[in-house]
Amino acid sequence: MDQRRVASLLAAVALTAGVTAAPTPAGLTPAGQYALATMAFAATLWVTGALPLAVTSLLVPALLGVLGVYSRFEDALSGFADPVVFLFLATFVLAAALQRHGLDRRVALRLVARFGSSPRRLVLGVMVTTAVLSMVVSNTATAAMMLPIAVGLVAELDAGDTDNLHVSLVLGTAYAASVGGVGTLVGTPPNAIAVATLRETLGVDVSFFDWLAVGLPVVAVTLPVVWAVLTYWLYPPRVADVSAARDAARAELAGLGPLDAAARRTAGVFLAVAVLWVLGGLGFLAADVLPDAWHVTLFGGSGPSVFDTVGHTGVLYYALVGLLAVPALVLLGCVDESDVFRGVDWPTLLLFGGGISLADALSDTHATEWLAAVVFDGLALPVFLALVALVVLVTVAFSELASNTATVAILAPVLVALGATVAPAYGLTAAAAGVTLVLAAAVGASFGFALPVATPPNAIAYGTGEVTRDQMLRAGLTLDVLFVPITTLLVTGVVALLLAVIAA
Protein backbone atom coordinates (compact mmCIF):
# COMPACT_ATOMS: atom_id res chain seq x y z
CA MET A 1 0.00 0.00 0.00
CA ASP A 2 1.49 3.35 -1.02
CA GLN A 3 2.24 6.07 1.53
CA ARG A 4 -0.31 8.50 0.12
CA ARG A 5 -3.12 6.01 0.57
CA VAL A 6 -1.99 5.17 4.10
CA ALA A 7 -1.82 8.86 4.99
CA SER A 8 -5.32 9.47 3.63
CA LEU A 9 -6.75 6.50 5.55
CA LEU A 10 -5.10 7.65 8.77
CA ALA A 11 -6.41 11.18 8.23
CA ALA A 12 -9.93 9.85 7.70
CA VAL A 13 -9.77 7.72 10.84
CA ALA A 14 -8.30 10.56 12.91
CA LEU A 15 -10.90 13.07 11.71
CA THR A 16 -13.72 10.61 12.36
CA ALA A 17 -12.42 9.83 15.85
CA GLY A 18 -12.09 13.54 16.59
CA VAL A 19 -15.65 14.33 15.54
CA THR A 20 -16.96 11.30 17.47
CA ALA A 21 -15.10 12.06 20.69
CA ALA A 22 -15.77 15.82 20.77
CA PRO A 23 -18.39 17.16 23.18
CA THR A 24 -21.81 17.14 21.56
CA PRO A 25 -22.61 20.74 20.54
CA ALA A 26 -25.85 22.41 21.55
CA GLY A 27 -28.64 21.67 19.13
CA LEU A 28 -27.09 18.42 17.92
CA THR A 29 -27.95 14.94 19.19
CA PRO A 30 -25.30 12.24 19.71
CA ALA A 31 -26.76 10.34 16.75
CA GLY A 32 -26.44 13.47 14.63
CA GLN A 33 -22.85 13.92 15.77
CA TYR A 34 -22.03 10.34 14.74
CA ALA A 35 -23.73 10.86 11.38
CA LEU A 36 -21.46 13.88 10.85
CA ALA A 37 -18.48 11.74 11.83
CA THR A 38 -19.52 9.23 9.18
CA MET A 39 -19.78 12.04 6.65
CA ALA A 40 -16.27 13.24 7.57
CA PHE A 41 -14.93 9.72 7.09
CA ALA A 42 -16.64 9.15 3.73
CA ALA A 43 -15.88 12.64 2.41
CA THR A 44 -12.18 12.31 3.19
CA LEU A 45 -11.90 8.98 1.41
CA TRP A 46 -14.08 10.04 -1.51
CA VAL A 47 -12.04 13.19 -2.09
CA THR A 48 -8.61 11.60 -1.64
CA GLY A 49 -9.46 8.37 -3.43
CA ALA A 50 -7.61 6.38 -0.78
CA LEU A 51 -10.11 3.57 -1.37
CA PRO A 52 -12.25 2.88 -4.43
CA LEU A 53 -15.41 4.98 -4.28
CA ALA A 54 -17.64 1.91 -4.07
CA VAL A 55 -15.63 0.43 -1.19
CA THR A 56 -15.94 3.68 0.76
CA SER A 57 -19.68 3.61 0.08
CA LEU A 58 -19.94 0.15 1.63
CA LEU A 59 -18.22 1.49 4.74
CA VAL A 60 -20.91 4.17 5.19
CA PRO A 61 -23.67 1.85 6.51
CA ALA A 62 -21.04 -0.19 8.35
CA LEU A 63 -19.86 2.87 10.27
CA LEU A 64 -23.44 4.03 10.88
CA GLY A 65 -24.07 0.61 12.41
CA VAL A 66 -20.90 0.59 14.51
CA LEU A 67 -21.64 4.06 15.92
CA GLY A 68 -25.28 3.23 16.63
CA VAL A 69 -26.77 6.00 14.53
CA TYR A 70 -29.69 3.65 13.89
CA SER A 71 -31.09 1.12 16.33
CA ARG A 72 -31.57 -1.34 13.46
CA PHE A 73 -28.84 -2.02 10.90
CA GLU A 74 -31.53 -2.44 8.23
CA ASP A 75 -32.16 1.30 8.41
CA ALA A 76 -28.51 2.06 7.70
CA LEU A 77 -28.77 -0.05 4.53
CA SER A 78 -31.97 1.55 3.25
CA GLY A 79 -30.15 3.69 0.69
CA PHE A 80 -29.11 0.60 -1.24
CA ALA A 81 -32.79 -0.20 -1.86
CA ASP A 82 -33.65 3.27 -3.13
CA PRO A 83 -35.62 3.32 -6.40
CA VAL A 84 -32.83 5.28 -8.08
CA VAL A 85 -30.45 2.35 -7.59
CA PHE A 86 -32.81 0.08 -9.52
CA LEU A 87 -33.47 2.74 -12.13
CA PHE A 88 -29.78 2.85 -12.96
CA LEU A 89 -29.50 -0.94 -12.85
CA ALA A 90 -32.15 -1.01 -15.59
CA THR A 91 -30.43 1.70 -17.66
CA PHE A 92 -27.13 -0.21 -17.50
CA VAL A 93 -28.90 -3.27 -18.95
CA LEU A 94 -30.55 -1.13 -21.63
CA ALA A 95 -27.16 0.35 -22.53
CA ALA A 96 -25.64 -3.13 -22.71
CA ALA A 97 -28.41 -4.17 -25.12
CA LEU A 98 -27.80 -1.13 -27.33
CA GLN A 99 -24.07 -1.82 -27.37
CA ARG A 100 -24.48 -5.56 -28.00
CA HIS A 101 -26.34 -4.86 -31.23
CA GLY A 102 -24.19 -1.87 -32.22
CA LEU A 103 -27.14 0.52 -32.11
CA ASP A 104 -25.21 3.20 -30.26
CA ARG A 105 -22.41 3.15 -32.82
CA ARG A 106 -24.89 3.27 -35.71
CA VAL A 107 -26.51 6.36 -34.20
CA ALA A 108 -23.10 7.97 -33.75
CA LEU A 109 -21.95 7.31 -37.31
CA ARG A 110 -25.28 8.34 -38.86
CA LEU A 111 -25.39 11.68 -37.06
CA VAL A 112 -21.75 12.47 -37.79
CA ALA A 113 -22.17 11.57 -41.46
CA ARG A 114 -25.08 13.99 -41.82
CA PHE A 115 -23.02 17.05 -40.92
CA GLY A 116 -21.25 19.12 -43.57
CA SER A 117 -17.67 19.16 -44.70
CA SER A 118 -16.42 22.16 -42.70
CA PRO A 119 -14.22 21.42 -39.68
CA ARG A 120 -16.43 23.36 -37.28
CA ARG A 121 -19.52 21.45 -38.42
CA LEU A 122 -17.63 18.19 -38.00
CA VAL A 123 -16.80 19.12 -34.39
CA LEU A 124 -20.42 20.13 -33.83
CA GLY A 125 -21.65 16.86 -35.32
CA VAL A 126 -19.48 14.77 -33.04
CA MET A 127 -20.45 16.86 -30.01
CA VAL A 128 -24.19 16.71 -30.68
CA THR A 129 -23.97 12.95 -31.23
CA THR A 130 -22.01 12.50 -28.01
CA ALA A 131 -24.41 14.64 -26.00
CA VAL A 132 -27.47 12.77 -27.32
CA LEU A 133 -25.96 9.38 -26.54
CA SER A 134 -24.84 10.56 -23.11
CA MET A 135 -28.46 11.25 -22.17
CA VAL A 136 -29.23 7.52 -22.26
CA VAL A 137 -25.83 5.82 -21.93
CA SER A 138 -23.44 6.73 -19.11
CA ASN A 139 -21.17 9.63 -19.99
CA THR A 140 -18.14 7.43 -19.33
CA ALA A 141 -19.29 4.74 -21.77
CA THR A 142 -20.26 7.39 -24.32
CA ALA A 143 -16.87 9.07 -24.12
CA ALA A 144 -15.10 5.70 -24.36
CA MET A 145 -17.01 4.95 -27.57
CA MET A 146 -16.98 8.40 -29.20
CA LEU A 147 -13.39 9.49 -28.57
CA PRO A 148 -11.86 6.73 -30.75
CA ILE A 149 -14.37 7.70 -33.46
CA ALA A 150 -13.33 11.36 -33.12
CA VAL A 151 -9.62 10.54 -33.30
CA GLY A 152 -10.24 8.21 -36.24
CA LEU A 153 -12.14 10.90 -38.13
CA VAL A 154 -9.28 13.34 -37.82
CA ALA A 155 -6.82 10.63 -38.83
CA GLU A 156 -8.58 10.44 -42.19
CA LEU A 157 -7.36 13.95 -43.01
CA ASP A 158 -4.08 14.40 -44.80
CA ALA A 159 -4.08 18.17 -45.36
CA GLY A 160 -2.37 20.87 -43.35
CA ASP A 161 -1.74 21.25 -39.64
CA THR A 162 -4.59 19.55 -37.82
CA ASP A 163 -3.41 20.17 -34.24
CA ASN A 164 -6.20 22.59 -33.38
CA LEU A 165 -8.79 20.28 -34.91
CA HIS A 166 -7.45 17.43 -32.79
CA VAL A 167 -7.75 19.52 -29.64
CA SER A 168 -11.18 20.99 -30.31
CA LEU A 169 -12.59 17.64 -31.44
CA VAL A 170 -11.20 15.59 -28.54
CA LEU A 171 -12.03 18.15 -25.85
CA GLY A 172 -15.39 18.85 -27.46
CA THR A 173 -16.26 15.15 -27.34
CA ALA A 174 -15.30 14.79 -23.69
CA TYR A 175 -17.12 17.95 -22.64
CA ALA A 176 -20.20 17.02 -24.69
CA ALA A 177 -20.40 13.71 -22.81
CA SER A 178 -20.51 15.62 -19.51
CA VAL A 179 -22.95 18.24 -20.78
CA GLY A 180 -25.27 15.67 -22.35
CA GLY A 181 -25.43 13.73 -19.11
CA VAL A 182 -27.22 16.69 -17.52
CA GLY A 183 -30.12 16.33 -19.96
CA THR A 184 -31.93 13.35 -18.43
CA LEU A 185 -32.39 11.81 -15.02
CA VAL A 186 -30.37 8.76 -16.06
CA GLY A 187 -27.65 10.68 -17.88
CA THR A 188 -25.19 10.83 -15.00
CA PRO A 189 -25.17 9.64 -11.35
CA PRO A 190 -25.28 13.12 -9.68
CA ASN A 191 -28.74 13.68 -11.18
CA ALA A 192 -30.09 10.56 -9.52
CA ILE A 193 -28.40 11.32 -6.19
CA ALA A 194 -30.01 14.77 -6.19
CA VAL A 195 -33.48 13.39 -6.97
CA ALA A 196 -33.19 10.69 -4.31
CA THR A 197 -32.10 13.25 -1.71
CA LEU A 198 -35.01 15.56 -2.53
CA ARG A 199 -37.47 12.68 -2.23
CA GLU A 200 -36.05 11.37 1.04
CA THR A 201 -35.54 14.72 2.78
CA LEU A 202 -38.19 17.05 1.36
CA GLY A 203 -40.76 14.61 0.06
CA VAL A 204 -40.44 16.23 -3.38
CA ASP A 205 -40.62 13.66 -6.18
CA VAL A 206 -38.87 14.90 -9.31
CA SER A 207 -40.17 12.84 -12.24
CA PHE A 208 -38.29 11.91 -15.39
CA PHE A 209 -40.23 14.61 -17.24
CA ASP A 210 -39.50 17.18 -14.51
CA TRP A 211 -35.79 16.58 -14.93
CA LEU A 212 -36.09 16.90 -18.70
CA ALA A 213 -37.70 20.30 -18.20
CA VAL A 214 -34.58 21.41 -16.32
CA GLY A 215 -31.86 19.42 -18.04
CA LEU A 216 -32.69 19.90 -21.71
CA PRO A 217 -32.59 23.73 -21.58
CA VAL A 218 -29.22 23.50 -19.84
CA VAL A 219 -27.88 21.23 -22.59
CA ALA A 220 -29.41 23.38 -25.34
CA VAL A 221 -27.61 26.48 -24.05
CA THR A 222 -24.31 25.10 -22.77
CA LEU A 223 -23.42 22.73 -25.61
CA PRO A 224 -23.25 25.53 -28.23
CA VAL A 225 -21.21 27.58 -25.77
CA VAL A 226 -18.64 24.79 -25.46
CA TRP A 227 -18.50 24.41 -29.25
CA ALA A 228 -18.11 28.15 -29.87
CA VAL A 229 -15.43 28.58 -27.19
CA LEU A 230 -13.38 25.67 -28.56
CA THR A 231 -13.72 26.25 -32.32
CA TYR A 232 -13.92 30.05 -32.56
CA TRP A 233 -11.96 31.30 -29.57
CA LEU A 234 -9.41 28.89 -28.10
CA TYR A 235 -8.66 26.24 -30.75
CA PRO A 236 -10.05 27.26 -34.16
CA PRO A 237 -9.40 24.51 -36.76
CA ARG A 238 -6.85 25.37 -39.44
CA VAL A 239 -7.90 22.92 -42.14
CA ALA A 240 -10.42 24.03 -44.75
CA ASP A 241 -12.08 20.75 -45.70
CA VAL A 242 -12.84 17.59 -43.74
CA SER A 243 -15.07 15.77 -46.22
CA ALA A 244 -12.76 12.74 -46.06
CA ALA A 245 -13.68 12.24 -42.42
CA ARG A 246 -17.37 12.49 -43.18
CA ASP A 247 -17.01 10.05 -46.05
CA ALA A 248 -15.19 7.60 -43.76
CA ALA A 249 -18.14 7.66 -41.34
CA ARG A 250 -20.56 7.01 -44.20
CA ALA A 251 -18.44 4.13 -45.49
CA GLU A 252 -18.30 2.47 -42.08
CA LEU A 253 -22.05 2.91 -41.64
CA ALA A 254 -22.70 1.31 -45.04
CA GLY A 255 -20.45 -1.59 -44.10
CA LEU A 256 -22.54 -2.41 -41.03
CA GLY A 257 -25.46 -3.55 -43.18
CA PRO A 258 -29.15 -3.61 -42.16
CA LEU A 259 -30.38 -4.18 -38.62
CA ASP A 260 -31.24 -7.76 -37.71
CA ALA A 261 -34.48 -8.72 -35.96
CA ALA A 262 -32.97 -8.70 -32.44
CA ALA A 263 -31.55 -5.23 -32.96
CA ARG A 264 -34.93 -3.96 -34.14
CA ARG A 265 -36.61 -5.44 -31.05
CA THR A 266 -33.99 -3.81 -28.85
CA ALA A 267 -34.65 -0.45 -30.47
CA GLY A 268 -38.38 -0.97 -29.94
CA VAL A 269 -37.96 -1.70 -26.23
CA PHE A 270 -35.70 1.31 -25.80
CA LEU A 271 -38.13 3.66 -27.54
CA ALA A 272 -41.06 2.28 -25.53
CA VAL A 273 -39.19 2.83 -22.26
CA ALA A 274 -38.22 6.38 -23.27
CA VAL A 275 -41.84 7.22 -24.14
CA LEU A 276 -43.17 5.74 -20.89
CA TRP A 277 -40.56 7.65 -18.86
CA VAL A 278 -41.77 10.91 -20.36
CA LEU A 279 -45.46 10.00 -20.01
CA GLY A 280 -44.91 9.19 -16.34
CA GLY A 281 -44.21 12.86 -15.65
CA LEU A 282 -47.31 14.12 -17.44
CA GLY A 283 -49.86 12.98 -14.92
CA PHE A 284 -51.02 16.54 -14.32
CA LEU A 285 -52.31 16.67 -17.90
CA ALA A 286 -54.49 13.59 -17.34
CA ALA A 287 -55.87 14.62 -13.95
CA ASP A 288 -59.18 15.86 -15.38
CA VAL A 289 -59.40 13.18 -18.07
CA LEU A 290 -58.90 9.84 -16.33
CA PRO A 291 -61.06 8.45 -13.50
CA ASP A 292 -59.35 8.97 -10.15
CA ALA A 293 -58.62 5.27 -9.62
CA TRP A 294 -56.94 4.95 -13.01
CA HIS A 295 -54.97 8.16 -12.48
CA VAL A 296 -53.66 6.84 -9.16
CA THR A 297 -52.79 3.47 -10.71
CA LEU A 298 -50.92 4.94 -13.66
CA PHE A 299 -49.29 8.03 -12.17
CA GLY A 300 -49.29 7.31 -8.43
CA GLY A 301 -51.14 8.85 -5.55
CA SER A 302 -52.64 8.25 -2.12
CA GLY A 303 -56.20 7.46 -3.20
CA PRO A 304 -57.83 4.14 -4.17
CA SER A 305 -56.40 2.31 -7.19
CA VAL A 306 -58.10 -0.01 -9.67
CA PHE A 307 -56.73 -2.92 -7.64
CA ASP A 308 -58.86 -1.92 -4.60
CA THR A 309 -55.77 -0.88 -2.69
CA VAL A 310 -55.27 2.56 -1.17
CA GLY A 311 -52.24 4.36 -2.55
CA HIS A 312 -50.06 3.34 -5.49
CA THR A 313 -46.55 4.11 -6.73
CA GLY A 314 -47.84 4.37 -10.29
CA VAL A 315 -47.28 1.88 -13.09
CA LEU A 316 -45.50 4.65 -15.02
CA TYR A 317 -43.08 5.41 -12.17
CA TYR A 318 -39.69 5.64 -13.86
CA ALA A 319 -37.91 3.03 -11.71
CA LEU A 320 -40.76 0.53 -12.21
CA VAL A 321 -40.78 1.08 -15.98
CA GLY A 322 -37.02 0.58 -16.09
CA LEU A 323 -37.16 -2.65 -14.11
CA LEU A 324 -39.88 -4.09 -16.36
CA ALA A 325 -37.66 -3.38 -19.36
CA VAL A 326 -35.04 -5.89 -18.15
CA PRO A 327 -37.22 -9.03 -18.38
CA ALA A 328 -38.72 -7.65 -21.61
CA LEU A 329 -35.24 -7.53 -23.17
CA VAL A 330 -34.52 -11.09 -22.02
CA LEU A 331 -37.85 -12.52 -23.17
CA LEU A 332 -37.48 -10.88 -26.59
CA GLY A 333 -34.00 -12.30 -27.05
CA CYS A 334 -32.32 -8.91 -27.01
CA VAL A 335 -29.95 -9.86 -24.18
CA ASP A 336 -29.11 -12.99 -22.23
CA GLU A 337 -28.25 -13.53 -18.59
CA SER A 338 -24.56 -12.83 -19.10
CA ASP A 339 -25.35 -9.49 -20.76
CA VAL A 340 -27.50 -8.47 -17.81
CA PHE A 341 -24.80 -8.99 -15.23
CA ARG A 342 -21.88 -7.90 -17.42
CA GLY A 343 -23.61 -4.67 -18.38
CA VAL A 344 -24.33 -3.51 -14.83
CA ASP A 345 -21.87 -1.02 -13.36
CA TRP A 346 -21.96 -2.44 -9.84
CA PRO A 347 -19.44 0.04 -8.33
CA THR A 348 -21.68 2.93 -9.39
CA LEU A 349 -24.74 1.27 -7.83
CA LEU A 350 -22.82 0.78 -4.58
CA LEU A 351 -21.75 4.42 -4.72
CA PHE A 352 -25.42 5.39 -5.07
CA GLY A 353 -26.38 3.26 -2.10
CA GLY A 354 -23.68 4.67 0.16
CA GLY A 355 -24.40 8.25 -0.83
CA ILE A 356 -28.14 7.90 -0.25
CA SER A 357 -27.61 6.09 3.06
CA LEU A 358 -25.38 8.94 4.23
CA ALA A 359 -27.95 11.54 3.13
CA ASP A 360 -30.70 9.63 4.95
CA ALA A 361 -28.65 9.44 8.15
CA LEU A 362 -27.83 13.15 8.11
CA SER A 363 -31.48 14.00 7.50
CA ASP A 364 -32.97 11.51 9.98
CA THR A 365 -30.74 12.80 12.79
CA HIS A 366 -31.28 16.48 11.79
CA ALA A 367 -27.52 16.86 11.46
CA THR A 368 -27.92 18.72 8.17
CA GLU A 369 -29.97 21.48 9.78
CA TRP A 370 -27.33 21.94 12.46
CA LEU A 371 -24.48 21.87 9.94
CA ALA A 372 -26.19 24.34 7.62
CA ALA A 373 -26.81 26.72 10.50
CA VAL A 374 -23.18 26.54 11.66
CA VAL A 375 -21.54 26.81 8.24
CA PHE A 376 -23.84 29.41 6.74
CA ASP A 377 -24.76 31.37 9.89
CA GLY A 378 -24.49 35.05 9.16
CA LEU A 379 -24.36 34.50 5.41
CA ALA A 380 -26.19 37.57 4.12
CA LEU A 381 -26.31 37.51 0.36
CA PRO A 382 -28.61 40.20 -1.03
CA VAL A 383 -30.56 37.98 -3.43
CA PHE A 384 -31.24 34.26 -3.72
CA LEU A 385 -29.55 34.23 -7.13
CA ALA A 386 -26.26 35.11 -5.47
CA LEU A 387 -26.59 32.14 -3.12
CA VAL A 388 -27.29 29.81 -6.05
CA ALA A 389 -24.21 31.19 -7.84
CA LEU A 390 -22.09 30.51 -4.74
CA VAL A 391 -23.39 26.94 -4.55
CA VAL A 392 -22.62 26.35 -8.25
CA LEU A 393 -19.15 27.84 -7.88
CA VAL A 394 -18.33 25.67 -4.86
CA THR A 395 -19.71 22.56 -6.58
CA VAL A 396 -17.77 23.13 -9.81
CA ALA A 397 -14.56 23.77 -7.86
CA PHE A 398 -15.07 20.73 -5.65
CA SER A 399 -15.89 18.44 -8.59
CA GLU A 400 -12.58 19.33 -10.22
CA LEU A 401 -10.85 17.39 -7.44
CA ALA A 402 -13.41 14.80 -6.35
CA SER A 403 -15.92 12.49 -8.00
CA ASN A 404 -18.95 14.48 -9.15
CA THR A 405 -21.22 11.80 -7.69
CA ALA A 406 -19.47 11.97 -4.33
CA THR A 407 -19.60 15.77 -4.46
CA VAL A 408 -23.38 15.77 -4.79
CA ALA A 409 -23.77 12.99 -2.22
CA ILE A 410 -21.95 15.16 0.31
CA LEU A 411 -23.51 18.52 -0.55
CA ALA A 412 -27.13 17.64 -1.37
CA PRO A 413 -28.45 16.95 2.15
CA VAL A 414 -26.67 20.04 3.48
CA LEU A 415 -28.17 22.19 0.72
CA VAL A 416 -31.67 20.94 1.55
CA ALA A 417 -31.18 22.12 5.12
CA LEU A 418 -29.63 25.38 3.92
CA GLY A 419 -32.66 26.00 1.73
CA ALA A 420 -35.00 25.57 4.68
CA THR A 421 -32.87 27.94 6.76
CA VAL A 422 -32.63 30.81 4.27
CA ALA A 423 -35.98 30.44 2.49
CA PRO A 424 -37.91 32.94 4.68
CA ALA A 425 -35.31 35.64 4.08
CA TYR A 426 -35.90 35.39 0.33
CA GLY A 427 -39.66 34.95 0.47
CA LEU A 428 -39.46 31.33 -0.71
CA THR A 429 -40.78 28.05 0.60
CA ALA A 430 -38.31 25.54 2.01
CA ALA A 431 -39.13 23.19 -0.86
CA ALA A 432 -38.53 25.81 -3.55
CA ALA A 433 -35.20 26.89 -2.07
CA GLY A 434 -34.04 23.33 -1.42
CA VAL A 435 -34.96 22.04 -4.88
CA THR A 436 -33.22 24.96 -6.59
CA LEU A 437 -30.01 24.65 -4.60
CA VAL A 438 -29.79 20.86 -4.96
CA LEU A 439 -30.51 20.84 -8.70
CA ALA A 440 -28.02 23.67 -9.25
CA ALA A 441 -25.37 21.62 -7.45
CA ALA A 442 -26.23 18.50 -9.46
CA VAL A 443 -25.85 20.37 -12.74
CA GLY A 444 -22.70 22.18 -11.60
CA ALA A 445 -21.09 18.88 -10.58
CA SER A 446 -21.02 17.80 -14.23
CA PHE A 447 -19.16 20.95 -15.28
CA GLY A 448 -15.68 20.20 -13.98
CA PHE A 449 -13.76 20.65 -17.24
CA ALA A 450 -10.28 21.77 -16.23
CA LEU A 451 -8.45 18.69 -14.95
CA PRO A 452 -8.07 15.12 -16.24
CA VAL A 453 -9.15 13.78 -12.82
CA ALA A 454 -12.33 15.87 -12.72
CA THR A 455 -14.54 13.48 -14.74
CA PRO A 456 -14.08 10.12 -16.48
CA PRO A 457 -14.63 11.73 -19.94
CA ASN A 458 -11.80 14.18 -19.17
CA ALA A 459 -9.53 11.30 -18.17
CA ILE A 460 -10.36 9.32 -21.32
CA ALA A 461 -9.73 12.37 -23.50
CA TYR A 462 -6.40 13.04 -21.82
CA GLY A 463 -5.51 9.37 -22.23
CA THR A 464 -5.80 9.60 -26.03
CA GLY A 465 -2.59 11.64 -26.07
CA GLU A 466 -4.24 14.16 -28.41
CA VAL A 467 -4.43 16.95 -25.80
CA THR A 468 -2.02 18.17 -23.17
CA ARG A 469 -2.82 19.00 -19.59
CA ASP A 470 -2.26 22.71 -20.32
CA GLN A 471 -4.69 22.64 -23.26
CA MET A 472 -7.37 21.02 -21.12
CA LEU A 473 -6.67 23.43 -18.26
CA ARG A 474 -6.98 26.48 -20.53
CA ALA A 475 -10.26 25.34 -22.05
CA GLY A 476 -11.66 23.96 -18.81
CA LEU A 477 -11.03 27.04 -16.69
CA THR A 478 -12.60 29.24 -19.37
CA LEU A 479 -15.72 27.09 -19.45
CA ASP A 480 -15.87 26.76 -15.65
CA VAL A 481 -15.93 30.55 -15.34
CA LEU A 482 -18.59 30.93 -18.05
CA PHE A 483 -20.81 28.14 -16.78
CA VAL A 484 -21.21 29.40 -13.21
CA PRO A 485 -23.46 32.33 -14.19
CA ILE A 486 -25.08 30.38 -17.04
CA THR A 487 -26.00 27.47 -14.76
CA THR A 488 -27.19 29.82 -12.04
CA LEU A 489 -29.56 31.71 -14.31
CA LEU A 490 -30.85 28.66 -16.18
CA VAL A 491 -31.51 26.42 -13.20
CA THR A 492 -33.03 29.16 -11.05
CA GLY A 493 -35.31 30.34 -13.85
CA VAL A 494 -36.41 26.92 -15.05
CA VAL A 495 -37.01 25.53 -11.55
CA ALA A 496 -39.07 28.59 -10.62
CA LEU A 497 -41.16 28.17 -13.77
CA LEU A 498 -41.55 24.43 -13.18
CA LEU A 499 -42.67 24.90 -9.58
CA ALA A 500 -45.16 27.55 -10.67
CA VAL A 501 -46.65 25.16 -13.25
CA ILE A 502 -46.89 22.35 -10.71
CA ALA A 503 -48.50 24.67 -8.14
CA ALA A 504 -51.04 25.83 -10.72
From TrEMBL:
InterPro entries: SLC13A/DASS (IPR001898). GO terms for cellular component: plasma membrane. GO terms for biological process: carboxylic acid transmembrane transport. It comes from the Archaea. The chain crosses the membrane at residues 53-71, 83-101, 122-155, 211-235, 267-287, 315-333, 379-398, 405-426, 432-454, 475-503. One of its GO terms (molecular function) is organic anion transmembrane transporter activity. It is found in: Membrane. The keyword Transmembrane applies. Keywords: Membrane, Transmembrane, Transmembrane helix. It is a multi-pass membrane protein. CDD domains: SLC13_permease (cd01115). PANTHER family: SOLUTE CARRIER FAMILY 13 MEMBER, SOLUTE CARRIER FAMILY 13 MEMBER 2. This is Transporter divalent anion:Na+ symporter (DASS) family protein. It comes from Halocalculus aciditolerans.
